[in-house]
Amino acid sequence: MTDAIFEEIKGRQQPDLASVPWKDGQWYYQWKFAEESQYRIWLRWPAPSSDETQPNAREAPTSDVEILLDEPVLAEGLEYFRLGSLAVSNGGSLLAYATDTDGSERYRLVIRNLETGDLLPEEIPGTIGRVVWSADDSSLLYTVVDDNWRPWQVRRHVLGQPVDQDTIVYEESDPGFFVGIGESASKEYIIIGAGDHVTSEGDRFIIKTNDTHKNARLATAPQDDPTEQAWEPLVNASDTHYIRGFETFQDFIAVEVRIDGLDHVQLMWRDGESSTVFDYHLDTQELEVRQVQEVPSGYDASEYVTERLLAPARDGVEVPVSIVRHKDTPVDGSAPLYLYGYGAYGYAIPPSFSTTRLSLLDRGFIYALAHIRGGDDLGYHWYEAGKLDRRTNTFNDFVDVARHLVDQDYVAEGRIAIAGGSAGGQLMGAVVNQAPDLWGAVAAHVPFVDVLNTMLDDTLPLTPIEWPEWGNPIEDETVFEYIRSYSPYDQLMAKEYPPILVTAGLNDPRVTYWEPAKYVAKLRALKTDDNLVLLKTNMGAGHGGRSGRYDRLYEVAEEYAFMLVVMGLVE
């Protein structure tokens, strides 16, 4: 069953997928996959002096194309490979790139001479995040992690000098903060920080801030006086418009805004014209299309129906639910339903197209995405309503969404397959404890299920940085008791549970592998049913699972096959 589903999903992937080329300085850049390849090849070629039209994905020139980086060569013979930062020097002759070969998210940074193809002798271990070149390409800045996998130092490496002589540019001593680096859009400034999105507009900075409103606003400030007193409003805050981010371009600023859980792009012209919001209509293709996702095995959008519901939560709040199903799938309670959720860190799961999902839809599943509190689907307040002492709202929302779908005859109780990963895996553990009879199958990927013990151990990689999300049970007894009241591991008890698939990664720095393992061991010891509980540990990977593009699809196929089998939908 797994192999059959995998071949279906693989058949929907474009085997020679390529990105739309982008211009940076005097070069065009592009990545592409060779057929059957798991990893990308990175290319570049000189940009013409008069360049009025942008090339499309299939329009790369056949001559003057240079291979910047060949991931398949680097990944050969490795069980795991992931490319981190990739940065071409300003002069275009050097390439700095970082690789992770075991899933630990500790990247090894190396530098290649693009003119000779040779690697420079220096290698820098234990890095993470971006790499930024100095203006004259004589040095670069990078971020390193400490023993607990916290990005804590920004260092400067001068080419040709020993790595152990690299200077510390910035060090964050507070264990509750991560550091990172970036650069302004003009490349005039290197930015060190953790939080606000700051970039450059001509001779002014553009600043995203939540100083006056949780949904954020945009301000500008002159370069010679970027203090808060000099800020001028650019986009005012709104109760209904949640500013997610922005990008600057030569003639306009693109602002990402979320309204009622749906993403919009607002374009603001620098000459002061009024803002414009575009909706892209697939049927008319009113906006220029640079690239459209291809489904080689075939896909007809008219065969599927999408819907949007509002499900009442137990405290009266309405929770949005995005639904997609095949047009022939009945809404009478007879079809199985797959319900996905996350609900943490202010991270929203957008209702986007997925080729993998078709394997469920074409087998008669209804697919639902619950926009539960803890994400920022409806704004920053939606995130705050699912963290700290309101964390249980997230779990209640998910259960209440499921019950509403039962009440509306989308599915019957016990016919719901649910899935979530990391903090979404915590969600899976919590709702299984709260309402086990609702679920027909559960997939909890790298689940954060031992919340209390993890938050009590400040030597673990993410514990101090996570206290603002969950609370600090070391210092507050009330927090201790509240976390214990919902922590999935602590709330396991002797009763019947649905079939559950749990995954882990041996090198996972975010959810350590023993956390899912001890959860499964306790669950097996306590449960009073004969339902299947599986633990799959990736022995050569980390938090994100396997690294190759097809290997990742196979893991999806394993999940789907598990659900189909344990729910009795296949022989």
TrEMBL record:
Keywords, sorted A to Z: Aminopeptidase, Hydrolase, Protease, Serine protease
Domain Peptidase S9A N-terminal: 2-200
Highest taxon of source: Eukaryota
Matching SUPFAM superfamilies: alpha/beta-Hydrolases, Peptidase/esterase 'gauge' domain
Enzyme class: hydrolase
UniProt key word Chloroplast: no
UniProt-listed Enzyme Commission number(s): 3.4.21.-
GO annotation, biological process: proteolysis
GO molecular function, one term: aminopeptidase activity
Family matches, as InterPro entries: AB_hydrolase_fold, Pept_S9A_N, Peptidase_S9_cat, Peptidase_S9A, Serine_Peptidase_S9A
Signal peptide coordinates: none
Domain (Peptidase S9 prolyl oligopeptidase catalytic) ranges: 351-567
Family classification: Belongs to the peptidase S9A family.
PANTHER family: PROLYL ENDOPEPTIDASE-LIKE, PROTEASE FAMILY S9A OLIGOPEPTIDASE
The protein's role, per its UniProt record: Serine peptidase whose precise substrate specificity remains unclear. Does not cleave peptides after a arginine or lysine residue. Regulates trans-Golgi network morphology and sorting by regulating the membrane binding of the AP-1 complex. May play a role in the regulation of synaptic vesicle exocytosis.
Name the UniProt record assigns to this protein: Prolyl endopeptidase
Source organism of this protein record: Geodia barretti
